[in-house]
Design goal:
This protein is an alpha/beta fold and 321 residues long. It has two domains: 7-196, HUPs (Rossmann fold), CATH 3.40.50; 209-304, Pantoate--beta-alanine Ligase, Chain: A,domain 2 (2-Layer Sandwich). The chain has eleven helices and nine strands. The chain has helices at residues 3-14, 22-30, 54-67, 97-107, 117-120, 140-143, 147-162, 174-186, 216-237, 242-254, 309-312; strands at residues 17-19, 43-48, 72-77, 111-113, 166-170, 192-196, 259-267, 281-291, 294-304. A hairpin with a 2-residue loop joins β8 (281-291) and β9. α7 (147-162) crosses α8 and α9 runs antiparallel to α10 (242-254). It is globular. Belongs to the pantothenate synthetase family. The active site is at 56 (proton donor). One of its GO terms (biological process) is pantothenate biosynthetic process. It holds the Pfam family Pantoate_ligase.
Length: 321
């Protein structure tokens, strides 16, 4: 065998199985068998809409770790029409299946499930859907009505089809991650949900498939989002209170020409309820904004420290040793 033939054979061996139908998926899943009752390897799934970037690949690498060396990693690539509202970018959403398959191969995927809408929704728009409840009515739910219901409906369907032991989601989509966790808990799904930290470019911008829509100038403007979140986190750590966290972050966003804010909120990380002004402890600072025609979301976990005496009572000095 020539060197070229050897290389090609190795690439074919490393390439994940690409399946498009339910029957092909069943065959691919059935081909994986555990080595015995004491083997701890698992099946892990990463659900994506394609147009993969380094943030997605971090999810796949973590899935490989969670699955174990003899486990199975499944990546789903499906642009879910239920997540898109009127006027959103369903038709122009970037698609590059061959490129995506090559990327996840290097990250350790075993199977890529890339169905068409008629495979996922064989009877057309589903009559029965999952409701995100009040989690889907705030923040993203205000600006994208029904979006979170569409997310949960397809996530539940894919979980039934793939039957994973563990599913991995990025923390950048914080509200989505919370909604998935609540669905799993409230509907008693036998799957572990693992959140993976947001991956950022060196300039601080959170990685997103929609970043490709930004011009160079717009990308520079978009850096205000991560800058605002960092400044808010610093206010929280300094014990200046929830109001100061929001005011500082809001000031940075308002001073950035070209940023149109949909929402900026400091919320309970377990419920997405806005925290009271006297809140201390963990919280989540979330932002959604438009830069040009591109809508971006980002978030930052913060820990609101208790105020010092000097901060709590204006004009009073902090106690001295």
């Amino acid at each position: 065998m020539t060197t070229a033939e050897t290389t090609a054979a190795a690439e074919d061996e490393a390439r994940p199985a690409v399946v498009r139908t339910r029957a092909e998926l069943r065959d691919a899943l059935g081909a994986w068998a555990l080595g015995g009752p004491d083997v701890t390897d698992r099946r892990a799934v990463v659900m994506t809409m394609g147009a993969l970037h380094e943030g997605h690949l971090q999810l796949v690498r973590r899935a490989r770790e969670e699955a174990g060396p003899g486990g199975q990693v499944v990546v789903t690539i499906f642009v879910n029409p239920l997540q898109f509202g009127p006027g959103e970018d369903l038709e122009k959403y970037p698609r590059d299946l061959e490129g995506d398959v090559a990327k996840v191969a290097s990250a350790g995927a075993d199977v890529v499930f890339a169905p068409t809408p008629d495979v996922v929704y064989p009877d057309g728009d589903p009559i029965v859907r999952v409701s995100a409840g009040r989690i889907g009515e705030v923040l993203e739910g205000v600006f994208r009505p029904g979006h979170m219901d569409g997310v949960l409906t397809v996530v539940l369907k894919l979980m039934h089809l793939v039957r994973p032991d563990v599913a991995l989601f990025g923390e950048k989509d914080a509200q989505q991650l919370l909604a998935v966790r609540r669905m799993v808990r409230d509907l008693d799904l036998d799957v572990e949900i693992v959140g993976v930290p947001t991956v950022r470019d060196p300039d601080g911008l959170a990685m997103s498939s929609r970043n490709a829509y930004l011009s160079d100038d717009e990308r520079h403007v978009a850096l205000a989002l991560s800058r605002a979140l960092r400044a808010g986190a610093e206010e929280a750590a300094a014990g200046r209170g929830a109001a100061a966290v929001l005011a500082t972050a809001s000031g940075i966003l308002n001073d950035a020409p070209g940023v149109v804010v949909d929402y900026l909120a400091l919320v309970d990380p377990a419920t997405v309820d806005e925290v009271p002004g006297d809140h201390t402890g963990p919280a989540l600072l979330l932002v959604a904004a438009r830069v040009g025609t591109t809508r971006l979301i980002d978030n930052q976990a913060v820990d609101v420290a208790a105020p010092t005496v000097q901060d709590a009572v204006p004009g009073q000095e902090a106690p001295r040793d």
